[in-house]
Design brief:
With about 160 residues, this protein is mainly alpha-helical. The protein has 6 helices and 3 strands; from the N terminus they run ααβααββαα.
Length: about 160
């Protein structure tokens, strides 16, 4: 069995002023960014395969998971945080058209439900339904039962690519 990659920690210089930074060069930063992008694409493909087995696209699964994460972060002392479609676009890196299509499909499937925003009645805010929560629990259970689930293939490691 292959061992998963151990990610390297490379500080990302927010201002990209590499001349004054001795911790990371521009070439190291670019190399790290390229490795992260490649690894992200591999993981996204794996996620898409798991989502497809439940009739979901990767984007649909990611939106459901985002709503689940927000729900899990709520507490009795904090009011529920509901997301509008603009916030979904920002959090998932999808276009408004993509989010609109994903939201509509998940709504029709009964996995999410919308309601008018308390602060702006022109916008809807969205949350998981009990069916959506149950589907995610099923996906997590199935994924947890697979021995290789969640491992990044060695091909994503810099050492193996060289």
């Amino acid at each position: 069995m292959q061992e998963p990659c151990t990610p390297q920690t490379v500080p990302l210089n927010a201002g990209l002023d590499f001349a004054s930074s001795s911790s990371v060069s521009a070439a190291e930063w670019i190399d790290a960014a390229c490795q992260m992008i490649a690894t992200g694409r591999i993981v996204a493909n794996q996620l898409a395969v798991h989502a497809k087995s439940f009739g979901l696209t990767e984007a649909e699964f990611r939106l459901l998971w985002l709503l689940r994460t927000i729900c899990d972060q709520q507490s009795a002392s904090r009011p529920p945080q509901l997301l509008n479609q603009k916030a979904m676009c920002e959090r998932l890196g999808l276009s408004p058209a993509q989010i609109s299509a994903v939201v509509e499909r998940l709504r029709k499937e009964g996995l999410i439900v919308g309601q008018a925003s308390a602060t702006d009645r022109r916008q809807n805010v969205w949350q998981l339904t009990s069916s959506g929560q149950t589907l995610l629990e099923t996906i997590v259970t199935k994924l947890a039962s697979q021995p290789s689930a969640g491992q990044i293939p060695h091909s994503a490691c810099k050492e193996d690519a060289a």
